[in-house]
Amino acid sequence: MSTPAHNANSPLTPAAQRILDTAAELFYTRGIHAVGVDTIAAESGVTKRTLYDRFGSKDGLLLTYLQQRDGRWRTLIEARLADRTDPVERVLTPFDVMPEWLPDNSRGCSFINAFAELPDPDHPGRQVIVAEKTWLYELFDQLLAEAGIADPATTAVQLLSLHEGAIISYSITELHTAAAAVRTAAEMLVKAAVGHESG
């Protein structure tokens, strides 16, 4: 497997950003395996050589796509957390950002979609996916512990399952009330856990 040419911490050139934006749209709407570098290059208005110069390979481009989405999601949550002090509200932050995230994700979670297409556990893209979901679980666990819950791990699994289920419900069944409904369920769950600890 080729090593990606692009360093995720360095800024992209305008051409590279155009390639990445095009690939992101194609990977998400058509699927990773269904889209080749010829299509990405043509729709980006660049040569395949430019694509390879910027990203090293299709896998390198895929890795950058997943890293960028992961970064945007984490930044969105962390920015909202920075404005909150109430322990329960902090735990619920990932649910509160869902209404602004979901409208641009009509085909469900890009990480789950990519996970289904990357069976090799050693694929760098799959490792990004696992890290993203693990990060959200660990965030719930940390915030629940800060809220004073003695067994945050169990509730963290429940919250993660509610969160991921809302994304699936929104995209597959077009239940646009999913985010609000699941947020209400999560709040009841967290408040019950906090009440149990303080009772």
From TrEMBL:
Q: Which Gene3D superfamilies match?
A: Tetracycline Repressor, domain 2
Q: Which SUPFAM superfamilies match?
A: Homeodomain-like, Tetracyclin repressor-like, C-terminal domain
Query: Where on the tree of life does the source sit, at the highest rank?
Result: Bacteria
Q: In its keyword annotation, does this UniProt entry include Phosphoprotein? A: no
Residues the UniProt record assigns to the DNA-binding region sit at 36-55
Q: Which InterPro entries match?
A: Homeodomain-like_sf, HTH-type_TetR-like_transc_reg, HTH_TetR, Tet_transcr_reg_TetR-rel_C_sf
Give this protein's Gene Ontology molecular function annotations: DNA-binding transcription factor activity; transcription cis-regulatory region binding
| Residue ranges annotated for the HTH tetR-type domain, each copy included | 13-73
The entry's protein name is TetR/AcrR family transcriptional regulator
Organism of this sequence: Nocardia speluncae
